[in-house]
Amino acid sequence: MRKxxxxxxxxxxxxxxxxxxxxxxxxxxxKFYCMSCLAGYLDVTEDELRAKIEDFKQEGCKxxx
Length: 65
Ligand SMILES: [Zn+2]
Prior knowledge:
The protein is mainly α. It has 3 helices and no strands. The longest helix has 13 residues, at 46-58.
């Protein structure tokens, strides 16, 4: 699998961060953000993003681990 890096800070991304970007931004261009850059981009806190990941996991979404 190709490694993905944060568009903003260049940090290697976890599976959850990639899944979250896919879910929340719905961008097919292959742009991904790490947790802290995504929080800034969406104007939310990292804690809110972590809560969202838990929600998606509860739904059984395969993008998260
Ligand atoms: Zn970043």
